[in-house]
Amino acid sequence: MVGHKRPPTRRAAVASVLAQTHPDFELLIVNDGSTDGTAGYLDDLAARDARVRVFHHDQPGGAPRARNKAIREARGSWVTGIDDDDEFLPGRLAALSSVAHAYEISGVAFSLRRSACSRSRSTTSLDQ
To answer: For the chain, which terminal residue's Cβ has fewer other Cβ atoms within 10 angstroms, N or C?
Structure first.
């Protein structure tokens, strides 16, 4: 997760990741030069939850630079992204992992998209 300021939406985004049903993940957060108290909030979060790792940029460098930092620091086999103004559904990581293992996917970028149909039905599709 990358971000510059926007504390209210970041808190919701973080909560949505920490509420995942999939047990094995790390949340990497890159503070891209925020000067609004974000650093203290993130450091406290990382101190309370071992799944959270935080990196701070002294000056804003933009989302691509911050995302690249998170990718370089990732310890897992898979990487997915979330912006600090988005939220994951609770089963997102479990669904991604399940699909990847079921189809023996490796080295492919994909995501699950949930959309509502006009009859209030929901569908899940795999975008490759």
So the answer is: C
**48: pLDDT strictly greater than 60:** yes
CA 103 to chain centre: 23
Domains and CATH numbers, the chain: 2-127 (3.90.550.10)
90-114: average pLDDT: 77
Write out pLDDT tens, residues 8-23: 789 999 999 999 999 9
**Res 124 pLDDT > 50:** no
- DSSP 8-class letter at 124: E
Three-class SS state of 119: coil
Who contacts 108 (Cβ-Cβ below 8 Å, separation ≥6)?
Answer: 128
Contact 81, 74 (CB under 8 A): no
CA–CA distance, 13 with 81 (Å, rounded to integer)? 11
How far, in Å, CA of 39 to CA of 82, rounded?
Answer: 18
